[in-house]
Design a protein that fits this description.
Order of helices and strands: EHEHEHHEHEH
Largest sheet: 5 strands, parallel
CATH class: Alpha Beta
Bound molecules: flavin mononucleotide
Number of helices: 6
Distance between the termini: 18 Å
Strand content: 15-25%
Structural class: alpha/beta
Helix content: 25-40%
Radius of gyration: 16 Å
Length: 192
């Protein structure tokens, strides 16, 4: 019997802070997948120039985005991946502006001829935040649920980590990082 090939995984860090809680969590998920043989890549949105969507809809005419920025080299990475990890801290009960700009540019996948390039891809969200109440992330979780559902992607899991504020606080949450590592193991061979 043919064994399942490993999934290709794209980890996206939407926090501007390198070595921050989101970066550490996304890296841990990727490590679990890599240890199972998955090819992985991590993107730091803060290192990239990704502008907001203008709503010009040129992408709906089958043309390349009118914004000549780094998103045009990220689209092929999205299309070639099986799994996308959306990592963002809670910023004012929503995602960071970096993550919001990134997601806004997914509007090009609404063009019917582009839909097949995103349909069925697996997604997970990885979300640290300061407050202790897990409901703090409700709006953000709903934003991803609705948007990914609209795009016909499959949101298969989420890791919410309350109670982390300063850069690297998450290392004290060994159980959450372990959960991340195990999620990575699962993602490596998860059936699409
Ligand atoms: C602009 C800004 C807004 C924030 N808003 C919230 C918030 O609404 N609720 C919350 O619990 N934490 C909030 N935080 C705290 C971050 O979610 C928290 O520090 C998180 O661990 C940062 O992750 P990072 O280390 O990956 O950047 C905010 C932080 C900043 C800088």
């Amino acid at each position: 019997m043919k064994s399942k090939t490993t999934n290709k995984i794209l980890g996206v860090v939407g926090s501007p802070r390198k070595k921050g809680n989101t970066h550490i969590l996304v890296s841990r998920i990727l490590k679990g997948a890599e240890d199972q043989g998955s090819p992985t890549e991590i993107l730091f949105l803060g290192d990239l120039n990704i502008s907001e969507c203008d709503g010009c809809h040129i992408c709906w005419k089958g043309k390349q985005c009118s914004k000549k920025d780094d998103m045009n080299k990220i689209y092929p990475k999205i299309i070639q991946s099986d799994v996308i990890i959306f990592g963002t801290p809670v910023y004012w009960y929503g995602p960071t502006a970096l993550m919001k700009c990134f997601i806004d540019r997914f509007v090009s996948f609404n063009y019917p001829e582009n839909r097949a390039k995103i349909r069925g891809k697996l997604a997970v969200i990885a979300v640290p935040f300061e407050e202790e109440n897990p409901k703090t992330a409700n709006l953000l979780v709903n934003f991803f649920k609705k948007s990914l559902q609209y795009l016909e992607m499959q949101l298969i899991d989420k890791i919410l980590v309350p109670g982390v504020s300063r850069r690297g606080d998450i290392v004290k949450k060994g159980d959450q990082l372990e959960k991340g590592y195990k999620l990575g193991i699962k993602l490596a061979k998860y059936d699409r």
